[in-house]
Design a protein that fits this description.
Blueprint lengths: L15 E6 L15 H11 L4 E6 L11 E4 L2 H5 L5 E3 L5 H12 L16 E2 L3 H7 L2
Parallel strand pairs: 1-2
Antiparallel strand pairs: 1-3, 3-4, 4-5
Helix pairs in contact: 1-3
Length: 134
C-alpha cells in the first residue's frame, strides 16, 4: 500500500461531501429574503443522491459571504491533490445547478469547475478553515 493510502479510514465517505451552512445568517430569510433556502438544500440532496453526501452545518464562521457551501473532494480527488473548495454568496439557482453539475462530473481534483464558480470561490481564514474541515 502506498504512503498516501496508509492511515486512510475505510469507513469514511467515498464520495464528495457538500457542506451547506444554515447557521446564524446563511439560509435565513432575514439576511437573504427571496432566496429559497429550503429549495436549495432539497435540490442539492435530490441531484446528488448516491453521488455526494450533503450535510448541513450550523455556522461556518464566514458570515460576510453567506450563503456558504464547501465542497470536499472524494478520496480519489484528494489523491489527485484537491482540497476543499469554499464557495460564498451562493444565492441563486444557477449557482446551485453549476455546483451539482461539477460534482456529478467528479468534483474537486477530478473535474474542472464551471468558470462561473470562480466568482463564488474564496479562501477563508486559516482558523475557520481548520475548524470546519475537521
Amino acid at each position: 500500500m502506498s504512503r498516501k493510502h496508509q492511515g486512510r479510514r475505510d469507513d469514511g465517505p467515498q464520495q464528495c461531501v457538500v457542506t451547506i451552512c444554515r447557521g446564524c445568517c446563511c439560509g435565513t430569510m432575514v439576511k437573504h429574503p427571496g432566496v429559497d433556502h429550503a429549495g436549495q438544500l432539497t435540490h442539492l440532496r435530490t441531484a446528488l443522491t448516491g453521488i455526494a453526501a450533503v450535510r448541513v452545518s450550523d455556522c461556518l464562521d464566514a458570515c460576510e459571504r453567506s450563503n456558504i457551501i464547501v465542497v470536499s473532494p472524494s478520496p480519489a480527488g484528494r489523491d489527485a491533490g484537491a482540497r476543499p473548495i469554499w464557495l460564498g454568496f451562493v444565492l441563486d439557482d444557477d449557482a446551485i445547478a453549476d455546483i451539482t453539475t461539477w460534482i456529478r462530473a467528479g468534483g474537486p481534483g477530478l473535474a474542472d469547475p464551471p468558470t462561473t464558480l470562480e466568482l463564488y470561490r474564496f479562501s477563508p481564514p486559516r482558523r475557520v478553515r481548520q475548524a470546519a474541515e475537521r
